[in-house]
Amino acid sequence: MRNSLFLLVLAILLFACSSKKKQAELLEQSKPLWLKQRPVNADYYYGIGIARKMGAAMLFEDKAKERALADISGQINSTIKAEAIFYQVEDKQGVKEYLQNRIKSTSSEYLEGYEYIDKWEDLSNTYAFYRLSKQKYQEVKTRRKNEAFKLASEKYLTGISMSNEGQHIPAIEHFALVIDALSGYLNGSTVTNVQGKQIDLVSESTKEINAIVQGLNFVSDVESTNPFGCFVVCDAQKKSVSNMPVQLKYSGGYLVNDKIKTDDTGRVILPKLSPTNNDADNALIVQIDLVNLGRQVTRNLYVRKIIEQQRANDVVVKSTK
Hints:
- The chain has helices spanning 2-30, 33-36, 57-83, 95-108, 134-164, 168-181, 201-215, 290-297, 301-308; strands spanning 44-52, 115-121, 125-133, 191-194, 197-200, 217-220, 230-234, 245-250, 259-261, 267-269, 282-288, 314-320.
- By secondary structure, the protein is an alpha+beta fold.
- It folds into 3 domains: 29-137, Helicobacter TNF-alpha-Inducing protein (Thiol Ester Dehydrase, Chain A); 145-212, Up-down Bundle (Methane Monooxygenase Hydroxylase, Chain G, domain 1); 216-320, Immunoglobulin-like.
- The strands form 4 sheets. A 4-stranded antiparallel β-sheet has the order 9-8-11-12, with helices on one face.
- The relative contact order is 0.09.
């Protein structure tokens, strides 16, 4: 009896294995040509995505589609990487990698116009097949680039106007927006026609930011009753600069608030310093806070780096014993 039961179970298992093997063979025969041999066409990018059949069909089909489009994007980015000449910047804070990712992200945005071709499933996976016309990709790329350069040109002209009017923080913000708008195009030329002149928008915006930052200085407030306790942040033309972040460094002890901003008149009101018991000279240094200035005007890491690498002007405003 036991032997009969064993033989019956064995026969069922063999039949199941044979059935699965036959099913797998039939599936292999039905596999589409695009899975057997990846298509190559000078007019299209092709993408194939694979996803495990786990969970709802809608979820794993969407995952296969996502991976197919990522496959197309990867081919485009490989071309971009081979052609790219990146701006040379220090890599201590991952800025170069950030720029490369912005360029890749920008290229991925051009995938509109992709076409669904086919899908196929086996016992474990689902496969999605998509394509993107290279001509369509170039059309979208050109349109998006033109839009970016138009926006950057407008921000640049506004930044120049604000800088001339002494609105320094808004001016820096607009020059930062210029560079941010074109960050995805730094592997190519950023020269364009602005009011009849050929201007490198990224280079000129960088120069404008540098000029503003390098022109910042401290001037003793002669109108204050305590000129050693109040200073004014001025630009290269001696105009006061409001809303400018300033950092305080005191060698004599801890400051409750060591990061402040200039008021509407550009003044820095310094804190009252407590006398120390040591015999050493103690100094309060007031310095333009370039790190917070970068964070204040932009989220773009490349622009922040431009600002932070400047030399921050400072002044020793008080020494005590």
